[in-house]
């Protein structure tokens, strides 16, 4: 299935970087456009620093700073054409709306891998997007170092694992 437009929502964290690399590779391989989405709390001055407001920061200056931050996420590959989107709505809604309105046929996003009480309390953005997205969703995670697994305990009746490969 060839992809024409790939959406990558980013929060600029390390957890989102593997998804950006994957989205970039897929966009390059398919000749697709890459849409970089960043969701902010507000596009107004409410999140500007005190120093910026005291120095007379205007809404356009604040938005320019947000655009500059998003443009720094540009993939290294010059072959990939990029569209940029800033949104100030709920994260899940922003991802779903951007995918639908821009006709994205794939969303490639990272996950923070929260579990336990924190996940129960906050929910998972990736899980919600997978459930509700109007297109395919690929969730990429940062690969942790390989963990040491316990040695297998085979017996004559229970060999633990059987593998068969067809001849080439």
Distance between the termini: 26 Å
Name the CATH superfamily classification.
Answer: HUPs
What kind of oligomer do you see?
single chain
Strand count, sense and barrel status of the largest sheet are:
5 strands, parallel
Structural class: alpha/beta
Question: Would you report the number of β strands?
Answer: 5
Strand content: 15-25%
| Average pLDDT | 87
Total tally of structural domains: 1
Envelope shape: elongated
CATH class: Alpha Beta
- What is the number of helical segments per DSSP (H or I, 4+ residues)? 6
Q: Any idea what the radius of gyration is?
A: 21 Å
Order of helices and strands: EHEHHEHEHHE
Kindly describe this structure.
Residues 116-122 have low confidence and may be disordered. This protein has a single domain (5-140), classed as Rossmann fold (3-Layer(aba) Sandwich). Strands 3-2-1-4-5 form a 5-stranded parallel β-sheet, with helices on both faces. The chain has 168 residues and is of the alpha/beta class. It contains 6 helices and 5 strands; from the N terminus they run E-H-E-H-H-E-H-E-H-H-E. Strand 1 (5-9), helix 1 and strand 2 form a beta-alpha-beta unit. Helices cover 35% and strands 17% of the residues. It has helices at 17-30, 50-54, 59-71, 91-101, 116-122, 125-132, and strands at residues 5-9, 33-39, 82-87, 106-110, 136-140.
């Amino acid at each position: 299935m060839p992809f024409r437009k790939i959406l990558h929502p980013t929060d600029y964290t390390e957890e989102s970087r593997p998804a950006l690399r994957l989205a970039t590779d897929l966009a390059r391989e398919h000749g697709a456009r890459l849409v970089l989405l960043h969701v902010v709390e507000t596009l107004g001055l409410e999140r500007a620093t005190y120093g910026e407001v005291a120095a007379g920061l205007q809404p356009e200056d604040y938005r320019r700073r947000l655009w500059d931050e998003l443009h720094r996420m540009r993939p290294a590959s010059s072959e990939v054409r990029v569209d940029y989107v800033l949104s100030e709505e709920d994260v899940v809604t922003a991802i779903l709306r951007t995918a639908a309105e821009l006709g994205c046929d794939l969303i490639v996003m990272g996950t923070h891998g929260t579990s336990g009480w924190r996940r129960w309390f906050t929910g998972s953005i990736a899980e919600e997007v997978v459930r509700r997205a109007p297109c395919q969703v690929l969730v990429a995670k940062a690969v942790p170092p390989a963990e040491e697994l316990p040695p297998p305990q085979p017996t004559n009746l229970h060999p633990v694992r059987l593998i068969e490969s067809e001849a080439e």
